[in-house]
Specification:
316 residues; two-stranded parallel sheet; alpha/beta; 9 helices; single chain; Proteophosphoglycan ppg4; 14 strands
Amino acid sequence: MPVTLPIELQHRILETALPPLVHRELDERVRLCKTFSLVHRTWTPVAQRELHEHFSTTLLGGAWRFSGGYGRLVAAQVGGGPVKRLRLKVIGYAEDVEDTDYADKQPLHPFPPVEGAPTFEEMWVELEGRGTPVWRGGNVRKLHIYDLGPERPTHLDSLPTNLTYLALSGVTVDAVPSAPHVRFFLYSRAVCLVPAADLLGAFQDLQAFACVGTWLQVKDFLEALPSTLLDLALAVFSVDDVAHDARPANNANIALPPSLDSCILVESVSTNRKEKRATERLVANACEVVDAAFVYKWMEEVGELDFEEWALSVGA
């Protein structure tokens, strides 16, 4: 006679079997939830809860009024099953539009105009085309911004003040963020127009920081790490212009915060072996001084690396 596990335990197993809540796994997570809901009626509540808490849509023209999903979102909020996580593709004017000045000034509104301005747990926002993002008018605790359009000002000085997690990918950082409560900051393939010390200094309680960039970019941040930092992740990719990506000399040294508990360094397998050894030795020695655990890895495409899952592993 087959043994049946208690329903509560079955539900816990289902929740554990779902992929992590990271950008690249969101579609798979939805697919599995739909599959679980069809297996047995006792599994349906768990699957439906996960599906109702997550909402994905595309905003044409950069506004919710052009989205067919707006009515569904409002209905969910009013119906007692509030959405906790939003995944948005915000599409502005075409990049090849004739009047680029006009197109660049058009606002892109990621936050839905929902009554009561609810606080979302997490938002993944992909910006495409021309336009200027407007971050006022909403509340969110964890915000991921992916800029897939032309270089533009992103107005990070107007971010929601209740943010505790901020991830920037491909973004032009043109102002110091207004996010004093951010404890987790992920910076990837971005263009920073403000000093690294000013950018990191905006986060008064920063505990975890990840950076994907050239050695020159990474080095600037290493020299500006705050004393509150506990966990550090670095991914260094090479560029053709060696003059703008000079690796550390064998006798170079850096100072890491005494509070640091762990550090991971990832480099491309295509990087010159001598350069890799110099970078690895530099960071490893610095970790040894502050008694921080150090992990070193190689991978094919460092430029495509996303430290989102790493952030979850250190408490995000």
